[in-house]
Write a structure and sequence with these properties.
Helices cover 36% and strands 15% of the residues. By secondary structure, the chain is of the alpha/beta class. The N terminus is likely disordered.
Length: 326
């Protein structure tokens, strides 16, 4: 999914895609932030330019930052830590230049009045670190799961944080390999909150250095040289046809998806949410999951706080409490 950089590694946004350490509704007060800034030892923040606050191009107050944190939490569920103040300035300063605003307060007023800016606001504050076949053991487990279902019925998978497409295309390759076919009976819903990365994912074009984890046999079987793009490869049309890309905000009151799913890949997403938000999302996942379905989490994520909803079957894979799987 697209989120603020943490060690998310997906990521990025705070999650990831990281492990939200703040509790629901907690925040650092503007006064507390001012105290930190006024400390002589902290006068110069970790800003790319290493410039003192007063030398910044745009006025950016502690109150502005707190408003941005609250807006991001309210609209995307992302918990942005106080340490991300410089990242926020750097990302949104580009929008101020584009919009012609002179201060962050002016930009935030624009945001309140112009709903079309919201999407760009969210996109600006999300980062996407991903790769093909990341956390490779999950694709081995998925292949085993598919073999157990094979020939019985169509298989449905939801990838909740598709980012620029590497994860859903890895899922598609795994399905094709398992069925030994470019047209397996598999449907993959690939979603993200960031529309810009979804647009990249739908194109399915990647530089050669992004394909380092792709086996040579997979590269020749599932990719072709991208026409007119040097040293880049395009995903074969057959793989793209297995995937339905769409924008989904996991905090939206209604999701444009219907179960049941055999697998939900929600990796490196929950780390951007606090525990109550995580629990709320997981509670909504359960009815969408087949009784024998699986939820795949990121390597740094744990859903043990939702033990009344899910149980672990090892290696960051979870099932419903009534699942026959052990």
């Amino acid at each position: 999914m697209a989120f603020p950089t943490n060690s998310r590694d997906k990521s990025s946004l705070g999650t990831r895609s990281g492990s939200g350490s703040m509790t629901l509704g907690t925040s650092v007060t503007p006064g507390g932030l001012r105290a930190a800034v006024n400390d002589p030892l902290k006068k110069i923040l970790n800003h790319p330019s290493s410039a003192p606050l007063q030398e910044r191009e745009f006025a950016f107050t502690d109150a502005d930052f707190e408003r941005i944190r609250n807006l991001l939490y309210k609209n995307a569920g992302i918990v942005l830590s106080p340490s991300k103040q410089d990242m926020v300035y750097s990302r949104l300063a580009r929008r101020l230049r584009t919009c012609g605003d002179q201060t962050f307060s002016q930009y935030l007023r624009r945001l309140e009045q112009d709903r079309s800016e919201w999407e760009t606001f969210i996109n600006s504050l999300t980062t996407n670190l991903t790769s093909f076949f990341r956390e490779a053991h999950h694709f081995e487990i998925l292949a085993s799961q598919i073999k157990q279902i094979k020939e019985k019925r169509p298989i449905r998978i939801w990838c909740c944080a598709s980012s620029t497409g590497e994860e859903p295309y890895s899922l598609a390759i795994t399905a094709c390999d398992t069925f030994s076919s470019l047209t397996p009976p598999v449907e993959i819903v690939a979603s993200d909150i960031d529309t810009s990365v979804l647009a990249q994912a739908e194109k399915g074009i990647y530089r050669r250095d992004k394909l380092d984890r792709v086996q040579p046999t997979h590269l020749s079987r599932y990719f072709t040289s991208a026409s007119g793009v040097d040293d880049s490869y395009a995903v074969r049309a057959e793989l793209r046809r297995l995937i339905n890309f769409r924008r989904i905000n996991l905090l939206s009151p209604a999701w444009p998806v219907q179960g049941p799913f055999d697998a939900i890949f929600c990796r490196n997403v929950m780390i951007y949410f606090d525990k109550p938000t995580q629990y709320g999302v997981l509670k909504r996942f359960v009815p969408l999951l087949r009784q024998e379905g699986r939820i795949y989490a990121g390597h740094s994520e744990s859903f043990m706080h939702a033990a009344d909803l899910l149980r672990s079957i090892g290696r960051t894979v979870y099932v419903r409490l009534d699942s026959p799987l052990r």
